[in-house]
What we know:
The complex is a heterodimer. Chain A has helices at 4-17, 20-49, 58-86, 91-95, 100-103, 109-143, 151-174, 177-203, 207-219, 221-233, 239-247, 257-280. By secondary structure, chain A is mostly helical.
Amino acid sequence: MRGAGTIMAYAVREGVRRRVFVVVLILTAVFLGLYGWGVSAVVDEVRVAGPAGNLVEVDVVAAATLLGLSMFGTLFLGAVLAAFLTLGVVRGDAERGLLQPLVVRPVGRATVILARTAAAGAIAGVYSAAVFLGAVLITGGFTGWWPSSVVEPALSLAGAVVIVAALSVLGSVAMAATANGIAVFMVFGAGLVAGLIGQIGEAISSDTLSTIGRIGSYALPFEGLYQSALSSITADTTGLTEVVVRLGPFGGAHAGGAAMVAWAVAYLALVAGAAVAAFRRVDLS
Amino acid sequence: MARGELVGLLGPNGAGKSTLVKITCGLVRAGGGTVEVMGAPAGSAAARGALGYLAELFRFPGWCSADEVLDLHQRLSGSSGGPEERARLLDLVGLGKEGDRRVETMSKGMQQRLGLAQAMIGEPALLVLDEPTSALDPAGRRTVREMLEAVRERGVAVLLSSHLLSEVEQVCDRVVIVTKGKVVADGSPADLARPGGVEVETGAGRRHFPGLGRDDVPDLVARLVAEGERVFAVRAVRATLEETYLEAVEERGA
Lengths: 285, 254
């Protein structure tokens, strides 16, 4: 894997020079600013409404739901970043003549594609974790509520976007950048829909819908990791508050646990391995 | 190809020149046969490490400076040449003062010069150049010719795929003409440019004597004078490489 560090540094420097990160940071600041505005408005509403009694902690329900909403946004932003960093890694760059000078060097195709995946995954993963932590601080600062766990959901969200990056790199071997972008976001959307179906299944106690949701989570484990992340922020919530949280749009998530993490790691290895095998067989004319 | 040999690869569009070049560099898999670079199978790490390549259609990242492009390729090829090698190569291709210039602000010709410098990173044993002068002006083409002669003297073998017959004729030790994937002519430019007879300007007009060469001129002139002809000029005609090329290609129905 000689040269992997060089390729990764090249990918990161490309992002810096092309001002990708500047744009991302500005838009993220806008996102977190709007989120903070929304949280403060909800806090005011909850105060005006007053406590709903001892059975349900309304402020906890509101804060957990808002943080869940921010996690949906964070996953989406992280997936967009991961996808756009990798859409044209193989076929797109080959069509533009950028890839050929690199792969004729002794570093080899496996190193090039794995290093590009690792660089994009690291950037998008760190970004997602950082945005999540920002949302946690904003939520906690305005509401005084802190999630049951911070590290676990941050890592789960980071892992989810790393998988999106790997899927996008795999797609880039077979498809041109635009087609790959469409495919990646359709797969991303399919994963979210599967998760939503699972949540509805939990809410209405439908085994069929729950099974569809579970299959979707394993077929596209970025969704499974996202569900785990959502679940972990309210893991310590109990009583009627827990019931109400789980009835909310971001509360019906189920924790995948260690099995989901292990599967996500294996899935990542399989996708990366498939990308390497496919790239080795591609003629770069 | 031997060390220090400069081989020109000629052929019409679709003859398979670029395909052969890409197979040599490991970009395309061969449908049959074997290709070796310095004794290693084409496409293997050892083969890729022994060659420098300039593609016909290539691009370097626009956000990189010329020096950064060369630095990247030094790292990927394992060259320990450092800044000295980069400066020397930029000088060699006439970009000595453009090291900090970003690729996106360079003309196509300047990018092609940079591509040549990139191909020579790490002192490869084989240079594979696919249409390396297509975007260059006459001065740039001359620079490339001089550069190729210099690398040949250092023992570097060069495979030059080109449409420019005059360029190939001027610099190459050997010319290989391919069409439809087959070699139809192979030899030195002098061998391929066959004798085309002798042309004599006489008082009765221009006369052509096919089958004769330069060595036959004294006897021919003596005979014509003896026959009472007035001889004004004599020229030994050689078929140009272009004529040989067209003949070889047309024979195959290309």
